[in-house]
Amino acid sequence: MQNNSDNGNQYSQPENQAQNQPQNQYYQQPNQYQQYPQYQQYGQYPQYGYWQYPYYQNQYQPYNFNGYQFFDNNYYQIQKAKTALKGHSIRIGLCILAFLASPFILSLFLELFSLFDLYAQSTVFQYSVELIYSVLFLFLPFFLVYCFKNKEEKKEIAKGFDKPKSPLLAVTSIGFGLMLCFCGDYISSWISAIFSSFGVTLTSTSEVSIPTSGMPLFLFFVSTAIAPAIIEEFAMRAVVMQPLRKYGDRFAIIVTAIVFGLMHRNAVQGIFAFIAGVVFGYISVATKSIWTAVIVHSLNNAVYVVFNVVNEISADFFEKAYPLFLIAVFVIGIICAVPFILSSKREKLSKASLIPDAGQKTKAFFLTIPMVISVIWMLIYTLLVQI
Q1: Residue 268: phi, psi to the nearest 5?
Q2: Beta partners for residue 68, in sequence order
Q3: Alpha helices of 113-166 — where are they, by DSSP H?
Q4: pLDDT tens-digit series, residues 75-105
Q5: What is the pLDDT of residues 163-191, one digit of tens each?
Q6: 3-class SS at 94?
Q7: 3-state secondary structure 231-260
Q8: Sign of CA dihedral 93, 95, 98, 100
Q9: Which end of the chain has the lower number of beta carbons within 10 A, N or C?
């Protein structure tokens, strides 16, 4: 081997020192880069590869040394997590688009088979169609997403439907959660009033006929209070939220609430749905059971059904009874809030078990094409139709 001292290399070892090194096939003379103090050898920083820059290392990006590119473990974990988030977002976004397009598909179906008159005149037919509509355009797309999940994610989703970890905690969460839903209703009303003060009127829903007896009333109750609570909680808190919990419970709850708001297709209901979605998500995590959210969701919708029917039968009785009912809801909610908050069995919100920070996770989930189209669709629908 030629001695580097012959060519005047200032970083080579002295000749007598090099001669004292063990002579075997694995020995290699140090080169000029090993003499720089700012480069550390493998052993002090084993997670960064053979060489690394201790002063300029960025854990989120690959780094270069002498023309070679190295990656640390954090970088690979972040890329893997972001890829999984984007895949989940694309599937959920396609489900949202299918649901947002469903009114047009339903209208086309009624037009093709000349069923518009029957739909407008028969409340039994109308609410029967609403039930089928919920199953086809809400349950079925999200069920397909569930079917294509891997075994671990299927277990996580199924785990969400376990029994609550404490009966007392479940009961208090229901009373507390229902009160928070009514608070959300007031907040959305205040926001609508603020818009109205600027001359912008936000409408919540289209007018529907309210049945007062018989089979129409039964179907109205089932299609409004029972079926949506079960189907929407399966779609949102199970299929959407459960796989997101490994990125942090707070992230999973907020993202799912935003998706829940998008699916309501207008500003007023979207604001209320977001607040209610946060409530449903939180009590699902706190009690370790989505069934508590199903019950609160169903009770909230049942109140809407019952008092609309009461108002249809007797407006005077409604004006007297509804304020008393609200007082009862808030009193019971406050009473339930104390043991719920103080309970040692209440599940704490877990932090992310995966590395990406909040900004990276949010971008990865919301900046996919189906999700962007869903957000734009809701904004256009709100601006052109609901205002």
Answers
A1: -65, -50
A2: 65
A3: 116-121, 123-134, 140-147, 151-159
A4: 777 788 889 999 999 999 999 999 988 888 9
A5: 998 999 999 999 999 999 999 999 988 98
A6: helix
A7: HHHHHHHHHHHHHHHHHCHHHHHHHHHHHH
A8: negative
A9: N
